[in-house]
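Check this:
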Amino acid sequence: NNRFAVAASMPAARTSAGRPGRPIQAENGVLRSITLTNFKAHSHFHLDFNPHVNFIVGSNGTGKSAILAGVIQALGGNPNKHSGTAGGARAAQGLIQDGKDYASVVLVLYNGSDDPWETQRASTQTQARLEEERNVTVTSELTRLAGNKTSSRYKINGVAATRKQVAALAEHFNLQVENPCAVLTQAVHANFLRETSGGKRRYDFFLAACNADIVRERLLAARDEYKGIATSLEKHEERGAPLADRVASTSKLVAEASRRDALERDVSAAEAELAWAEVRKVERAAGAGEAEVSRLKDKVGEATRREESAVEELGRLRALTEERTREREVRLQQLHAAQAAAKAAAQEHRKAQRAAGEAQDALGETRGELAAARRRRDEVSAQHERKRGNLDSAKAAAAARLDAARRSAGDAKAAAAAEVAEVEAAREAAARQARASKERADGTSKRAEALRREAAAARDDLSRARSAQGDHLKRIDPAMPKLLAELGRARWPSGHPPVGPIGAHVRLKQEYSSRAAGVETALGGWPGASAFIAASNADERQLLRLIETHAPKLCSVRILVQQREARFKPAPSRHPDVASVLDAVEVDDDQAFNALLNFYSPEALLIGGLTDARQLFKKRVPFVAFDADGMKHYLRGELEASEQTGSHTARGLMRMDSAAVLSGLEQRQAAAEAEAAQAA
């Protein structure tokens, strides 16, 4: 069969295969190729083997041992049987890549020499194709299930098979994948070297490697059989003397016994023939039983597949039921809203009916008043007829007075028009002044409301800082110490607990205490100080579950996923004469330091205020800087900008002097309340 040598710490991976198009001459069971999908370190890997000697070389961690583990898995063995870190049915969990739900290994073996493996369940056409290709293909499929369980299925030439059938195929080709003399894995090698129990395990390893354990069992059985034979022989010797006397008398009966022996031989021959006929009958019954067992196994496999299909259908129905339940809840909410709207419409209808009644009453009163008005109209008409005569005489006098009045009205109209224009101009000016006053009032009101909110936030920060009594974890959040205690008790998939919160690993140097607000803003404020660092996506999911269980108020905490690496080396500053955030802090954890470089602005500069920013603007070298009040200043290309992005005072999110934190928060609260009172 193929021979393998697996070496470590080599610069690159190389393979050697036979020349293409050249017929391969090899014995049955020689490996032709292997294909790994989502298997350990390989997402998709294919390798064609040379029929003789193969060397697989590559750097540590590139998946050399995974290829050997795939061969063991495909041939029905357990790649983790001798591993100290996994075993039993749970060992298959480690064979599937993180974040994947399945893995597969496809192994092609040569089957074209003498005594080939014949698949009993393949069709005639498939069997002919396999004989033409002179290959046999073994497929192992692993599926991740709930509860850290894994299902394993096998196929031989595309036909479902059991692990026992795969083991029978390996035995047919004499492929002893779990014999350490044939396949020596790193786990077996490590266990052999770490032997500390007086050499017993090494002796057992030697017996298994050379199949001497079987020989040992046979030897012990032979010794027991020899002892039994010796004991029986001693008993026969004790009875030998009386038997010698009986030999003489028995010799007389030999002649007569010879005839009896002939008859007994005939009877024995007849009995033997009858026995062999019975044996052949039993063998035929056993063959039928094996066929029935095979048929029942096929039914069991079909039932298993139907059960898996039913489980999948049940999952789909559960998901559909949950979706229908959510739709029903939404429709119930809509129904409740419609019922509330109907009640409101009914109330409005009753109000409209009452208003209609009142309107009818008012209409009756109006009709009475109309009749009285008609009577008064008739009286006035009579009086009008009487006065018309007097009116004609008065018209002449009135016409004369009208001419005089028209002349005086023309003069008054001109004066009134001038006065109206003057009044309109004054009204427009007053309206503009009123609008300006209203806009100033609205702006002042909004400013007062914002300042009141800022004052309330300052009071909350001050109260939390006073209650923390110098504990920077409680200053980040009161629930943080409890959460860290739960994280320390949990077991993590990567083997390393999450690092965090980041603010717990950052200490502000005493000489930079006046720049605390700018440092906190550069490091992301509360979201940055409260963030955690997970080594893998599995760790991130477990951390989220622990936060939801033990500290639900911290569900908004940011979780950064990054691999564990040595501490990064920051790039040199373009402004070496100006202190940066990295100069002002000390970070006691490498992963926290790398996260600050990856996700925040620790290389930002620390300046005194706008004057220092203007000096940096003049140099025309790009920069980002924060002053003591948390104001951000930056130069990008031709863009110069200064903006308020954080708090004016430090909130104590890093390890620093508690007295300085309280003093800054008290000053912030007093200033915010004073500004709010002034705006109000």
